[in-house]
Specification:
Chain lengths: ~220, ~220
């Protein structure tokens, strides 16, 4: 754990802790949305289905502390996806090119740290890790590179889409400091793939619905 | 260009409000610079004021006026980048095809960022300072090392001010540029055989830190 993951360092004004403390109420909202009455029964899968279904699109464009928790859980979901993708690719050990292997190793470390950072911010309000199946996208090098590019570009667009909805300053700060690292990853994998690293004058944001629809379309999330 | 269309950026009208707020804000700037009439507002005088850490203009208290200050700060940094790449291409020192592609593409992006911020700021936009990049444009290697510092600084500057922005449409615009700066930074780092993403998170930098670093380069003449 680096000092970057230290909540106190991130949270000079105490607002992130307030977000985490707001978890009780927010968690209650989640239960209501998913129709579950007791905490013991909140399986990660059920929560995640709720988060993934565009019909249940949780994030509002009205900034509030409760909404910040939703945004952070949305970010955590995407970071789980990325972290698990790279972890499994590194474990599978089937990538050949040095550049690709190095990218997978470094970015696996970053995404894992982003997961822990968001979990530490969310505390008890953090969603659980879903289960994933990436098929041969973690062993076939060409598929791995193409998938990594899509995941990173999507990550950039997702943070750009939600940054403007965040209410609390330390949460904005944390989100922006991750946002640009996702953009660095996107640029990096695009260079490896011989694609334009910075394909546009500005990066267009994507809504929660667009991102979760795309994620659901990959079939990577099993439950 | 679609990306530079104000209406695309400004669905709820907040950016136009910022631009309309320019009158009052320019008044503030004049007061701060100690200049009584608009006719005397030379770009240089405004810029020196912006560059002096003691007169650090941006507040952490969110307001539409503060957004104008932040946007002018961003515009200043984009002027610097845009002029740097333009001068680098004109200096004809870049031989490597990868470096040339980077310089050409990024020159165009930064010039578009300038136009985007100018269109958002309208009459409140600061004028372009004059620059001298000769020290950084002696050869390809110095150009590439300088580009890396400028892009990393751009990322840190946007990260530092994003949390201070008040209007949602301005945040949308700033974040759209922020990640492109990060893409540039990773790109030039890759070409320099440096780590494209050197940290788990990118640390923000304050206005005073960024402007002192910029002043230290000596790139800005007035």
């Amino acid at each position: 754990m680096t000092s970057l993951l230290n909540l106190a360092a991130l949270d000079k004004s105490g607002a992130i802790e307030e977000t985490a403390e707001a978890a009780g109420a927010t968690r209650a909202d989640f239960f209501k949305r998913t129709g579950i009455a007791t905490a013991g029964l909140v399986a990660a899968g059920t929560m995640f289905d709720g988060l993934l279904s565009p019909a249940h699109a949780a994030i509002s464009s009205k900034p509030s502390k409760a909404n910040d928790v939703k945004i952070l859980n949305y970010a955590l979901t995407l970071e789980f996806l990325e972290a698990e993708f790279y972890n499994q690719a590194v474990t599978a050990n089937a990538l050949q090119m040095w550049q690709v292997k190095n990218f997978a190793l470094v970015v696996a470390g970053h995404e894992g740290a982003h997961v822990r950072l968001l979990q530490s911010v969310l505390g008890n309000a953090a969603v659980k890790k879903p289960t994933f199946d990436f098929g041969d996208a973690i062993t076939n090098e060409a598929k791995f590179v193409a998938t990594a590019q899509i995941l990173e570009d999507t990550g950039v667009a997702a943070y750009a889409g939600q940054g403007p909805n965040i209410f609390q300053r330390p949460v904005v700060k944390a989100a922006l400091s991750i946002h640009s690292v996702e953009a660095r990853h996107a640029s990096w994998i695009r260079l490896i793939a011989n694609q334009k690293p910075a394909p546009a004058v500005v990066d267009e944001p994507k809504t929660e619905k667009q991102v979760l629809g795309a994620v659901a379309g990959t079939g990577f999330i099993k439950g | 260009m679609n990306a530079l269309n104000l209406e695309v950026l400004d669905r709820d009208g907040a950016i136009l409000e910022t631009a309309e707020d320019a009158g009052a804000t320019r008044g503030d700037l004049i007061k701060r610079a100690g200049i009584a009439t608009v006719g005397f507002m030379a770009a240089g005088a405004m810029f020196e004021n912006l560059l002096s850490p003691a007169a650090a203009a941006i507040s952490t208290k969110k307001s539409a006026k503060n957004d104008v200050k932040i946007l002018n700060y961003a515009l200043t940094l984009e002027f610097l980048e845009a002029e740097f790449y333009k001068a680098a291409l004109a200096a004809n020192i870049i031989a490597n095809a990868w470096a040339k592609d980077f310089a050409t593409t990024v020159a165009s992006h930064e010039a578009d960022h300038v136009k985007l911020l100018q269109s958002v700021l309208g009459k409140a936009a600061v004028k372009k300072p004059s620059f001298d990049f000769s020290a950084a444009l002696t050869d390809e290697k110095t150009f590439m090392a300088t580009a890396q510092v400028l892009e990393d600084t751009g990322v840190a500057a946007y990260a530092g001010q994003g949390p201070n922005l008040s209007q949602k449409a301005v945040v949308v615009a700033a974040l759209g540029i922020h990640s492109v700066e990060a893409r540039h930074a990773a790109w030039i780092r890759f070409l320099n055989a440096d780590s494209p993403a050197p940290g788990i998170t990118d640390s923000p930098k304050r206005e005073s830190t960024v402007l002192s670093a910029v002043a230290d380069t000596g790139f800005i003449q007035s």
